[in-house]
Amino acid sequence: RYNNRTYRIDDIAWDMNPQCTFKCHDGSEIRFMDYYQKQYNLTIRDTEQPLLVNKPKKRLRTRGQQAPQAASEEAEKICLIPELSCMTGLTDDTRSDFRAMKDIAAHTRLTPGDRVTALRKFVERIRSCKEAQAEFDSWGLMIDPDILNVTGRQLKGELILLKSKSVVAGAEADWSRELMKEHMITAVPLQSWVIAFTKKDQRNALEFVKMLQKVGPPMGMEVKEPMVLELKDDRTETFIRSIRDNLTPAVQLVVVVQPTSRDDRYSAIKKLCCVESPVPSQVINGRTIAQSQKLRSITQKIALQVNCKLGGELWALEIPLKNLMVIGIDVYHDKSKGRSVGGFVASVNTSSTRWYSRVCFQLPGQELMDGLCTCFTASLRKYHDVRCENCHVYLSVCMSLCMHVCLPVSVSLSISTY
């Protein structure tokens, strides 16, 4: 409320209050309440309230970002007064309020025309302000009264290929309605699957199953009755034990409806289904399927995700290059375990809807993949097995390595067969 900065609360200092002291930049000590009175003319009423703790990231500390509300240099933390702080963001109740979100969207999701109008009004305000104009004149700068017009090219609507029909994406690039009525390119029948939920989510989970069986067939996806696991509590151990005890080689999918969003439970479920007993899994928040008016659209989107996880193909594009392999590369740095993992994917069919994937481990913080040659060779073998068993392959490789650590390396391959 006094500097308009945003901080993430990492902890609560119960042993501190506004009467505690901290060190200033000049080495002197001052009480929190005296600091705010002197610096911002703010009087703290509750002198016994605990302090909120923000632990800034290392990159922010190295940039020299300091909070005026006193940083404890010893613990490298920023202490905030609750009385002078306010929560930011949207609450779950606000997000579920359709009218409120619609009013917010009117200001955050502006059309290009509205953005141009707002920008022109802003420029006009600057040009009509004598103080601002004098400041620009002192710099030798002038703001043009209108925005720069450039000539652009409007591309044709992309053709989306389904199993027996093709549709144009349209101006909004939205073909979801057509997809819900037509069959996917390859739909995998869901014949043996498990759904786990607590007693609290029983009604919503069973309604979700019925809706999935209803929306699946129009998209070409057959959905059988699942094995229902109703859990006695929402402990992570209960979820894991119940899923592990009912996993068999015949199970195609595990669906988990969790009552609340918890990272530790989600990670434990994914570890079980990805590492210990590999099986496709779908974790759903109970609140997501609790909205009956949105259940159909939500279930349709989940059905698409499930079909992809089972190896199905949703739709394709009309790609001019018929013999093309698209490769994606990225590196993940696990700071907790001190190692880096390189991810590699490559398309293996004409429509780029089926993919070969592989990972390789490397030194901590390393961006370039040592195992790139191994992954690349393996992807070519897979491509050969799928596309051209009795042909020779000529490769023309064009690699663009991005130097920025946040962006993946992009590789495009043009493969000609003869």
Fold and architecture overview:
With about 425 residues, the protein is an alpha+beta fold. The chain has a five-stranded antiparallel β-sheet, covered by helices on one side. Residues about 60-75 and about 390-418 have low confidence and may be disordered. It contains twelve helices and 18 strands. Helix 9 (about 235-245) runs parallel beside helix 10 (about 265-275). The chain has helices at about 30-40, 60, 90-95, 100-110, 110-130, 130-140, 175-180, 200-215, 235-245, 265-275, 295-310, 370-385; strands spanning about 10-15, 20-25, 30, 50-55, 70, 75-80, 160, 165-170, 195-200, 225-230, 255-260, 280-285, 315, 325-335, 340-345, 355-360, 395-400, 410-415. It is about 30% helix and about 20% strand.
Q: Total number of helical segments?
A: 12
Mean pLDDT: 84
Spans of at least 5 consecutive residues with low confidence = 61-75, 389-418
What is the radius of gyration?
28 Å
Structural class given helices, strands, pairing? alpha+beta
Strand content: 15-25%
Global shape: extended
Strand arrangement across the biggest beta sheet: 16-15-14-18-17
Based on DSSP secondary structure assignment, what is the total number of beta strands?
Answer: 18
H/E series = EEEHEHEEHHHHEEHEHEHEHEHEEEEHEE
Roughly how many Å apart are the termini? 70 Å
What proportion of the residues is helical, as a percent range? 25-40%
How would a crystallographer describe the biggest sheet? 5 strands, antiparallel
